[in-house]
UniProtKB/TrEMBL annotation:
Domain Alpha-N-acetylglucosaminidase C-terminal: 192-486
Species annotation: Ambrosia artemisiifolia
Gene3D superfamilies attached to this UniProt entry: Glycosidases, N-acetyl-b-d-glucoasminidase
Coiled-coil ranges from the UniProt annotation: none
Domain Alpha-N-acetylglucosaminidase tim-barrel residue range list: 1-191
InterPro entries recorded: NAGLU, NAGLU_C, NAGLU_tim-barrel
Record-given protein name: Alpha-N-acetylglucosaminidase
Length: 491
């Protein structure tokens, strides 16, 4: 990095420690914060920086002491003292240390971080020795409501994704104006898009440029202020009692999800079916996809084109599946067994088709993720543990009970070949099979029994060691063409 002119940023000790540390340091001053972490200051911080002598070589250190953890008191004096202690520990390891900190806390916990508390923390460090990352500036810029962090240097950032989900989404106009404080660029946005398309694919192709114009005003023009976190029904299948009423007043193409400030919290009441975020016309995306497919005659050999083609095809089919899922529930509530089975089969077929599509590009393979985790291991037991970790992170997480899913299940969901076929498809099938069985045998659908079956399957999948491909198979353009004809061309 240094040879390339970059400034490395190294992790510093944030003060977060496991609860078991009390057993080792019974006299230490440890304060519990929130549900996740404990804080310990001074001694361990100094020990950490002393052991990491490499700090002497690099000036920028990052530490997020209060990221999604609320201080035990709102007293500005206490907060200032604490911030000063954190920086003092850093400067002992490196006298030129600069503290790099996420500004996420000022948004996610804005009810606590009022101007006095913000100033107390930001001004507890010598000017120029702290840099704040305005992490969510593309949607919720904190600099606007804090007099530019009260004079503390900051970086305008874009938090494009939560959990590494795979979903096309964007705010291109904001990106063009936000970093330069709403200053309009000399060239128009559309002209920028044409240049981008040519640079991305290496040549000018009219259909590709037209597709990007559509994407700019649809998928990449989210203006509803909602933080996008993919909750499409394929990858975040609802834990839903089908006897409850489906919400009655939302257009098919305007399904919206509401989030709290905490990045992992989905705000859904017990009586409301979770609704995927939908901020654009599905038909616009379908038109753009047709243009992308038509551009394939000139661009099929370009890696970036094939990636975009697979991603857009996946996006369009995933949104289609959302409506098919709702069709299943509607049919069940009408007690129409034939329609339940028909729509269920269509939902499952879409998953199968998307999996085949994703398998055609190296960037959408589960095997790559799992093998990269296993390569880090030094022993067979580590290899098993790392693979379990990798599988768990993208699926159920680990705070499950026999009949209750993790609160963070599917937080890091992925559209990856292998994950769709062996994880998302069986989950949907178990649910749909129980719906059909309920109607066929005239017995009540038992949501708790489905949860038990599904959680048991998930636990077994996390512990499995099946090897998945790490090389793409299939012709992405041919598969995309076939799927477009199958689902979107009039018969």
């Amino acid at each position: 990095m240094i040879e390339l002119g970059m400034t490395p940023v190294l992790p510093s000790f944030s003060g977060n420690v496991p609860a078991a540390l009390r057993d080792i340091f019974p006299s230490a001053n440890i304060t519990r914060l929130g549900d996740c972490f404990y804080n310990l200051y001074k001694i361990l911080f100094h020990h950490f920086t002393h052991k990491r002598c490499i700090f002497n070589d690099y000036d920028v250190l990052y530490s997020d002491t209060f990221n999604e953890n609320t201080p035990p008191t709102s007293d500005p004096t206490y907060i200032s003292t604490l911030g000063s202690a954190v920086y003092k520990a850093m400067s002992k390891g490196n006298k030129d240390a600069v503290w790099l900190m996420q500004g996420w806390l000022f948004y996610s916990d804005s009810s606590f971080w009022k101007p006095p508390q913000m100033k107390a923390l930001l001004h507890s460090v010598p000017f120029g020795k702290m840099i704040v990352l305005d992490l969510f500036a593309d949607v919720k810029p904190v600099w606007e409501s804090s007099s530019q962090f009260y004079g503390t240097p900051y970086v305008w950032c874009m938090l494009h994704n939560f959990g590494g989900n795979i979903e096309m989404y964007g705010v291109l106009d904001t990106l063009a104006s936000g970093p330069i404080v709403a200053r309009v660029s000399e060239n128009s946005t559309m002209e920028w898009l044409k240049i981008y398309s040519r640079r991305r694919y290496g040549k000018a192709v009219k259909q590709a440029e037209s597709a990007w114009e559509i994407l700019h005003r649809s998928i990449y023009n989210c203006t509803d202020g909602i933080a996008d976190h993919n909750t499409d029904y394929i990858v975040k299948f609802p834990d839903w009692d089908p006897y409850l009423s489906i919400y009655s007043s939302f257009p098919k193409q305007d399904i919206i999800t509401t989030y709290s400030n905490r990045r992992f919290m989905l705000t859904v009441s017990d009586s409301t079916l979770p609704q995927p975020h939908m901020w654009y016309s599905a038909n616009d995306a379908i038109v753009a996809l047709k243009l992308f497919i038509d551009a394939g005659e000139d661009l099929a050999g370009i890696l970036t084109y094939r990636y975009d083609l697979v991603d857009l095809t996946r996006q369009v089919l995933s949104k289609l599946a959302n409506q098919v899922y709702l069709d299943v529930l509607s049919a069940f509530q009408r007690k129409d067994l034939k329609a339940v089975e028909s729509h269920s089969q269509k939902f499952e077929q879409i998953i199968t088709d998307i999996d085949e599509l994703l398998a055609s590009d190296d960037n959408f393979l589960l095997g790559t993720w799992l093998e990269s985790a296993k390569r880090l291991a030094l022993t067979p037991s580590e290899k098993r543990q790392y693979e379990w970790n990798a599988r768990t992170q993208v699926t159920m997480w680990y705070d499950t009970t026999k009949a209750n899913q993790s609160q963070l299940h599917d937080y890091a969901n992925k559209f990856w070949s292998g994950l769709l076929m062996d994880y998302y498809l069986p989950r949907a099938s178990m649910y749909f099979n129980r719906l059909s069985e309920s109607l066929r045998e005239n017995k009540r659908f038992d949501i708790v029994e489905w949860r038990k079956e599904w959680i048991s399957y998930s636990n077994k999948w996390q512990q499995d060691t099946k090897v998945y491909p790490v090389k793409a198979q299939g012709d992405a353009l041919a598969i995309s063409k076939s799927l477009f004809q199958k689902y979107f061309e009039k018969k």
